[in-house]
Design a protein that fits this description.
This protein is α/β, with parallel strands linked by helices. It contains eleven helices and eight strands. The chain binds phosphoenolpyruvate.
């Protein structure tokens, strides 16, 4: 039985006071998401602040990005070792915003995946097709290629300590959610691909969905057999909405 995971990606949003209020609001309702893993990815600058805010709670910290390199002369970058030192347990790699705007191609994503694991972080590998790719019938080919890059670089066993997130680009921040059936179909294909290589890894792999997840659609998504949680952007900035999504994951157990 895979434990449900709800992960919030704050992106480039937050301020000290607002962060404290948001975490306080989420913690106040901890009883509602017992048994669900809850991770938060604040901007890197605020990881230290959040490390203090989550003490004594079940909330874990995730980073939004990681350097391809180890510690050294890389101005402006943050290494996997630093993130681990700052109490992060996981890091997002391959988010579509980084793929499309910051040059994170498949090779870079594979490097970041490896750096994360070498430092003891869980990489949350994002895969997903654009609208044009979906309309051209290429969804499965695209996500399988993005998955295969990590498998080729690190072996299928690396997925035993990773999380996969299917995030169709056309559903991110658009209010347009893929239907639970569309998502289930892609998750099934991803899991089956891993299963071809290693049935145990496939059975244990958590595959999250991301793309305009809200409390209103979370229940239907989490009812699907291969949807193990959500990577949440916009709705993770609202304590009530975020907790309601996590509560839906709990109910779906
Ligand atoms: C995301 O950025 O990973 C995301 C899923 O965003 P949103 O929930 O706002 O669509």
């Amino acid at each position: 039985m895979r434990r449900k995971l709800v992960a919030g990606n704050w992106k480039m949003q937050g301020r000290h006071a607002a962060n404290a209020a948001l975490v306080q609001g989420i913690r106040a309702r901890e009883a509602e998401y017992l048994g669900v893993d809850l991770w938060i990815a604040p901007p890197a600058l605020y990881i230290d602040q959040l490390a203090g805010l989550v003490v004594g709670s079940s909330i874990c910290l995730m980073a939004q990005n990681v350097a391809r390199e180890d510690d050294g002369a890389c101005t402006g970058e943050i290494s996997a070792g630093m993130l681990r030192d700052a109490a992060c347990v996981a890091v997002i790699v391959g988010h579509s915003e980084r793929r499309s705007r910051y040059g994170d191609d498949d090779a870079v994503v594979a490097e970041k995946f490896g750096r994360a694991q070498a430092a003891g972080l869980i990489p949350v590998l994002c895969v997903g097709e654009t609208l044009a790719e979906r309309e051209a019938g290429q969804t499965e080919a695209v996500v399988l290629r993005q998955l295969q890059v990590a498998i080729d670089a690190h072996g299928v066993s690396a997925l035993a300590s990773a999380v996969l997130a299917y995030e169709p680009v056309w559903a991110i921040g658009t209010g347009r959610t893929a239907t639970s059936e569309q998502v289930q179909q892609v998750h099934r294909v991803l899991r089956a691909e891993v299963e071809k290589n290693d049935a145990d890894v496939s059975a244990g792999l958590r595959i999250l969905y991301g793309g305009s997840v809200r409390a209103a659609n979370a229940g239907a998504l989490f009812a699907m057999p291969d949807i193990d949680g959500a990577l949440v952007g916009g709705a993770s900035l609202d304590a009530d909405e975020f907790v309601a999504i996590a509560r839906a994951a709990r109910v779906a157990h």
